[in-house]
Structure formats: C-alpha cells, structure tokens
Amino acid sequence: MKYSLLASISASALVMSSSALAQDQIEWSGFGSIAAGMTTGSDDQLFGYDNDLDFNPGSLFALQAKANLSDKLSVTTQIMSRGSEDFDLGVEWAYLQYQLTDSASVNVGKLRLPFYMYSDYLDVGYSYHWLRTPQSVYRVPFDNYTGVSFQHNAFVGDFTFNTQIVAGNMQDDISVIGGETAEAELNNLIGFNTSAIYSNLTMRVAYYQTNDANIQLRGIDGDVDALLTLLEQVGADQIITELDASEDKGTFAGVGVMYDNFDWFVGAEYTELELENSYVPKQRSAYITAGKRFDSWALHATYGKTDDKVMNPERFAVPDPQLQAVVNQAANIVVTETAYSSIGVNVNIAPSAVLKFDVTHADNKLTDESDVLASAAVQFVF
Amino acid sequence: MMKKLAVFLIVLFAGMLSFSASANNGVVVSQTEINEESIARIYLGQSRVLTGVNLPEDSATRTAFEEALVGQTGNQLKRHWAKLKFTGRATPLETLNNDDAVIEFLKSNPQGIGYVSDKSKVSGDLKVIATF
C-alpha cells in the first residue's frame, strides 16, 4: 500500500514537474529536524528514547512540491522520511487546493487532522519554540485523514478569525498498548476549529466527532487475547462489547490560547478525548508554557499533565472477583496520569535554522516512576 | 588617537543619520487604495485582496517595513510563513531584487502592492499607501 501510493505520487510528481517546467510554476521547499536524545537513568524510557544516545525518534526530513495548475487550482505533495519509521518514505500530505475567493479555499486529499493548536505544523519544528510539541497533549496516535477541508479567513473589527471545517475518514496502523500497533479506522469524521487572533493574542477552539471508530483489539497483546477468550467462554460477551472499540462514537474537544509579543510568550492548551463503549478512557490533557526571547536565543519552560478516567466502570462488572481483577486491569490498560515538566533553550544558528536543547522530566503518578530525557536538535526550513 | 576616534565617531554618527533618513523615507505603493490593516494582513498571508511583493530578506527597507507596518521581526515572519507554506494556508510572496523591480511590477499590476526605500520613485498611476 505504502509503496504503490508512493509510486503513484512519484509518477504524479514527475508528470507535474515535466508539465510545470514549461510554466515554471513548480515550487520546491522542505524542512527537517536532526535530533539526538538519551535518558539520564539506565532504566529510563521516554518518547521512544532510552539510556543509549539515539538519533532516530525525533529526526525527520520532508520535501514539498507545489504546482499551480491554474490561478485557482494547485496540487501539493509532501513526502517525509522519519527516523522513527527507519527513514522509510511516506506521503504525509497530498492534496488539490481550489481557491474559492480571496479568503476561502477548499482542499481535497490526504490532509492533517487539526486536533491541536500546532497540529498543522507538528513536523515543522522550526516554526515553534519547543523541541517537540508537549506530549501531555499531543498524544493522539495518528496525525492525518483523507477527505475534505474548507478554510476561511474573516476580519471582524480588529479580530481575524481563521476557521477550518473538515470531513473525511482515517485509516492507519496506530501504536497502542506497550508500543504494539493496531489497525484503527475512523469513519464519518467531521469537525471544525476556529482561531481568533487579536493583535498578539490567539485563542482557538476545536471539536471533532465520529460515529464509527474502530480499533482492532485482538492479536495485539497475548494477555488481552487470553482475557477475551476467557470472557467468551464464560458467556460475558457484553464485557467484550464494552472493551472493544467497534463502531463506537468518539468525540474530541480542545481549547488553546497563546499570547506572544515577541519579547516573551505564554500559552496553554486543554483537550478532552472520549471513545464511548470502549477500553479507551476519557483522556484529559493539558499544558502551560512560557518563554522569553533574547537577541538570537530564547529560554522557555512547559508544564503538562495527563489525567485519564475510566468512564462508567460499572459496565465492566462481572460476578467473579478473580475475573473482575483481570477485567479491571484490561480496562485500565491505557490509563495514564503523568506530569511532564521541561525547560528548553533555543539558539538561532542561521536565518532558517535553530539549535534547540531540551530537558524533560516525566512523573508517572500511577506507577510512581519518573524518567528524565535530555535532547538536542537542529531544525530548519528551506 | 583622539583624532582618529573623533573621525570614527563622526563617520558613525553620519552613517546612523543617513540610515535613519533612508528608513524614514520608505513608502508602501500600489495603484489601489487600501488601509493600513490590510497591508499587515496581506504580508501575514491572511488576505489576498492585493498581491504583495517583497524586497530581499537582507534589505534594510524590508526590515523597517516589517517592523513598522506588519508589526513583526524578520525571524518571526520567517517562522510564520514556514507555517503557512507547509500547511497550504498561503503561497509565499514573490521577492524582487530592488526598488526598480518593485516599481516596474506595480506599474503593470493594478492588483499589486509593494514597498520601496525611495519615495521619489513613485510616479504615474502609483499611489503612496503608507510611509514607514
């Protein structure tokens, strides 16, 4: 699938470049991040890093080609190679854009699902102050969807409103329990986000929902499989339905704010994700961040927290106490309650490149474990 | 030694004077009348009512224009436009080499807008929209 898609994109890129050469209208650009990190404790693990220096988890390269087919119609592809996926090439964005008016456009294709304030720029580390977006909030295990997006800019008094409405579906292998991957599918996904910008202040709200969310549960984890078989044997099929994410309703809501007067900045985001009738808990996530810029460098700090809650735990009730203990364990399998604090220093090393240092401390309240990760990265655009 | 220092200071002072004089002479130019807020919106990629053109990144006129009328530093705007470019929100504005190229572009594009360091180059159908 990946290769056939890649082949077709490469082919279309070739067609694009040969036809566009004549018009001299193909625009190439790109960005990247070379990151290195290691945890300070020999048993510490965080964001894919352990106690050995690793260049893979945070490194990526992307190349974007945009061709204007007419004044109003353009085609854009973004091909990315991520260290976390062994630098395999993948198509991150691929869409047609039609400019409806001076302030409205519509995109069709493979697009970014804009859950969070920085979702759109997630991979363009150069564009934000963190080395990586705060993992307390930026933790939905998929980034893209296939479908339609409508963008609109409005000016009301001194306010600028950027609104985006999306519709489509998502199908991807996502990472679940203990780093294992599972097939996930969200259908009939609709939602919107609006940013209100007033001078140095940006406020944002977002809401998305699906009535058909599916995450394959069987075959991911031996213990989960054994439990499901056991539940079938004792005739507790109802519990399986409650654990399973199958044709379930999912909602996502988020609010964010950022004040940035170029000398200093402060911002925060809060999100809530719910997947009814499944093992996925209600996920509440937040962070607050602040920083100060100096001539060619900046200093910043971020505090974030996850606070998950198993919804209606009574739906997992079974008469057998021993079995109940196992069911409860399964229902709490992805519950997290972790606090993250990080400080970072950024140094502008070229007009289009920044060197970033970050130390993040994660404190897992449920296991009482804490991990410390030190990272450095050079992030750039061209 | 004192003499050298005095000469150095005079040259430096004169240099600063001429720099500030040229910075004060900058003008935003178009054939189409538009208000100052719209100028910022065009150069922030939020509005396409007119097609904006830029001078090169290392131009002092560009720096003065961005700080005075867009309200952002060059670095901030670079980050801002990186966001727009890689999310398909806007296409980067064209960069022209010098004042003369900007004037030439504006004369043949009624829907164009740009800025130059020298007010005296504004002629014909072109109007001064703002000064900086």
TrEMBL record, chain A:
Residues 1-22 form the signal peptide. Keywords: Signal. InterPro entries: Porin_dom_sf. The keyword Signal applies. This is Porin domain-containing protein. It comes from Idiomarina piscisalsi. The lineage of its organism: Bacteria, Pseudomonadati, Pseudomonadota, Gammaproteobacteria, Alteromonadales.
